[in-house]
Amino acid sequence: MKKLLKKLFLCTVVLIAIFSLSQITAFAEYEVSTTTCSMDNNNDYQESDFTMPKDGKVKVNISITDKDSIPGILKVSFRKADDEDRAIVQVFTGITASSPITDAIVDLDAGNYYVSYVLSNASGERTNTAISLTCTIEILPTEVTNISELKVNAINSLDEITDKGYSELQFGDFEKDKSIVIPFTVDRKGGIYISMKPSYEIFNEIKGTIYKDKECTQALGKSFSLYDMDDNKDYLRSLPSSGTYYINFILKNDEIFHEVEETPFQVKLYEINGEDRSITSGKSTLAYQEKTDKKINFKFVVKATSVLAIDLRSADNSKSGSASFRLLDKNKKAITKTSTLHSDLKEDGDGYDMMVKYYTVTAGSYYIQVSASDNLYELVSYGNKYKSNAGLNKAKAKSIRVQGTYGTGLFTTADKTSKVEWYKFTINSRQYVQIMLEFLLDGKFDCEVIDSKGTLLYQLSKGIDNKEGHWILAVENYFDKGTYYIKVHKSGASSSLAYILNLNN
Prior knowledge:
Jelly Rolls; mainly beta
């Protein structure tokens, strides 16, 4: 029983700091792991655990005190716990009472480690050899480089993302400098677009991670990597607010590259606004949305009755995207229902087109509420004045001619469903006529053709489904001599419509 108790108490491991990946936010309070134990002929191997919460550096101090006549020699090894072979990543040998390890700096990747202690002596026979040891492992704070700050580019269009304007950074001696931290500052919450490309040196991998703090303990989003075979790599990450952030770049090289003295690479940052904002007709703005269920409100002022056209272009047009739109009043109260559009494949098959949403509105201030499937998109809104030449009742119907005059009409979101616009045309003898209607629609509408006796000849809603967006529809047939009327009205209270009416033969 005494031997068992002795075995249990020979090695006492005191962990001043126990880290786990889920406790990184508490890093500043726990910095040092200390192991103390006794070792002798019957207890010549010990092992402790250590967790590194981030890629970085540790400072190691190891000292021993001889307790018997033959001096001891200690070997200390660091092994990655999740490595099946438990390969050694760092080893210290020849540690004696007179030759301790003092302030040794070791680079470690984030993860769990086993630290093993093996006792020996010069004679090879461990009888009459006993020691006490102390090993401290201090996680060092990451130091910001002497580069003051990485430039952040302010852009308003996807076309401004070019292959120019990179800043060159570099790692120094691989053995001494394979981690650098660069601060950058943004003016608002949203996204940061990161573009990286190699310079002229060969390397294995450069991994970057964004942090809230310069000690690099509070990571934001996933890491991103650049390999020496890449032409360039682009990434997008979320930023919760305005302020200063830090990118920790880690150089990862194979043994063959250890003689490289400097490793340069190039980085460029773009700030992408994720907040509500005011927009001006014809001027593009870039927007970042972290998730599709989040919305951005774009304020737009209309000075006269107009058609609003909102163009939305996804940064990634290699796949079909979608976006939901809703029109709000000046108090951000919903005027229309939510409408979802999907991008169509381009005619040449090379990518997908932008999405275009239309509203017809009276003068005033509005918000266009947008939620897009793509994190990064460009939005441009246009306000185009528009007028109607239609008659507001059958008796005052606007007269149009085949291959002659044409009608222009509109229904704003504020118009009631009882409003009707009227046109008429007269045929002097039996004639083939094509009634063509080009329209910009949000919601639903109807167009009816009736004869002078009031008989309904054609009704658009019964022949063709109403389609939101920009469309051209036609009704064509032979018409007998007489006068005919065309009646247009919207079918939904919040619907809006602008259109052109033509007669052809």
